[in-house]
Amino acid sequence: MTTIIRGGTVVNADRAFRADVLCYGDKIVAVGTNLDAPASATVIDAGGQYVMPGGIDPHTHMNLPFMGTVTADDFFTGTAAGLAGGTTTIIDFVIPSPQQSLLEAYRTWRGWAQKAAGDYSFHVAITWWADSVHEEMGTLVRNHGVNSFKHFMAYKNAIMADDETLVKSFRRSLELGAIPTVHAENGELVYQLQQDLLKQGLTGPSSHPLSRPPAVEAEAANRAIAIANVLNTPLYIVHVSCKESLDAITRARAGGQRVYGEALAGHLIIDDSVYQNPDFDFAAGHVMSPPFRGKEHQTALWHGLQGGNLHTTATDHCTFCAEQKAAGRNDFSKIPNGCGGVEDRMAVIWDAGVNSGRLTPSEFVRVTSANAAQIFNIYPRKGVIAVGSDADIVVWDPEASRTISAKTQFAKGGFNVFEGRTVRGIPSATLAAGKLAFHKGELMAKEGAGRHVDRPAFTPVSAR
Ligand SMILES: NC(=O)NCCC(=O)O
Ligand SMILES: [Zn+2]
Ligand SMILES: [Zn+2]
């Protein structure tokens, strides 16, 4: 199948230029002016529009069993929603239960992901430690295209990794050429603060941010950075939500450490006033960890993205419907943690980032795809419009707008944290592996069309 995108401005992380883009099969085969195309080619008119690499969301949870329930979006509905919003690749998480074989969990998640409509890859969480975990990390890197391991420093009595696990897993990651990543929150502190609040009868969603203040996040970020420094490993910190964690990253980077930070679209846009809403469904719909923060933290996160101390934008897409959130009606600590966003990330970041002048279009590409592709070692297959790259392309109409609503979204869960926000700058077309998956409001996502993306190790893998 041949597709030609004519007359647009190609935007890559390094520059923007006028060019047609010719795709054949699942690859880009030519980028240039006045390209010839066979008469049978599908023609997409991109006049007056930008032609950018499809978004990469490096942090999603589709089909995730979590806090006694399973997310509303599975790999089909979640990736299809992503395609509608211009995101063509997700990196999701395999989360083994403590004592579970990593490979067994990996195979389970690969099975669930067979439905995906867009491309996907997996970070694997290290939730416990044993010699078998050490072994299986090697197998995952060598044979299964995994080059990143996730550590939850929160969620005590569930998937929290203790310091022994962090140290052993970071060291093993280095040996294998994989990058350790962390959810930075001190899980013990969260647990104790939750108990204190519940004892005082403060059982509603407004207690959620009180149990997870910025200092709790910053302690864990500083600890993970210190461990990475001693062991000389790189580190990627997911969902950096507060100034204090960003300061820790900025300090570490200024001191020569390779530490990367991820900002969530939600944390950039939404503030903590949502937890004061008396409507339980509304407040609980915003319960995620780390929580939404005060506006001063949002300003700091934007500065982090602009200044290069935060590198990627993600969503942590993890949707639960109102009935699922109601599990915590009498105890906020039981509200399933998670919010959506995979469908909206590109548009809200364009609107709040590019339209405001905070980011140039090239910087937008850097933080929505190119940096993630480089950090997780799938560049230039992904994250750039270039000959030989995957034909994952979003045609972006900077003048068109849409008002975000759960009523019109493709994602499941019946709730949207960006509800009512009108964004200017939206996809007019999304091409995934050379196939038109979204065009002028119509979603043509196909169940099972997504492919697993192997991510090679960063250095030669040891034979151990
Ligand atoms: N973020 C969140 O609240 N839920 C998903 C799991 C995680 O990333 O911590
Ligand atoms: Zn997390
Ligand atoms: Zn997450």
UniProtKB/TrEMBL annotation:
InterPro entries: Amidohydro-rel, Hydantoinase/dihydroPyrase, Metal-dep_hydrolase_composite, Metal_Hydrolase, Metallo-dep_Hydrolases_sf
One annotated GO biological process: pyrimidine-containing compound metabolic process
Family listed: Belongs to the metallo-dependent hydrolases superfamily. Hydantoinase/dihydropyrimidinase family.
Maturation and modification: Carbamylation allows a single lysine to coordinate two divalent metal cations.
Gene Ontology terms for molecular function: dihydropyrimidinase activity; metal ion binding
Name of the protein this chain belongs to: D-hydantoinase/dihydropyrimidinase
Signal peptide: none
Catalytic activity, EC: 3.5.2.2
Function of the protein: Catalyzes the hydrolysis of dihydropyrimidines and of the structurally related DL-5-mono-substituted hydantoins, to produce N-carbamoyl-D-amino acids.
Keywords for the protein's UniProt record, in alphabetical order: Hydrolase, Metal-binding, Zinc
Reactions mediated catalytically: 5,6-dihydrouracil + H2O = 3-(carbamoylamino)propanoate + H(+)
Subunit structure: Homotetramer.
Residues annotated with N6-carboxylysine modification: K150
EC category name: hydrolase
Listed CDD domains: D-HYD
Recorded GO CC terms: cytosol
Keyword DNA damage listed: no
Residue stretches making up the Amidohydrolase-related domain: 50-417
Cofactor annotation: Zn(2+)
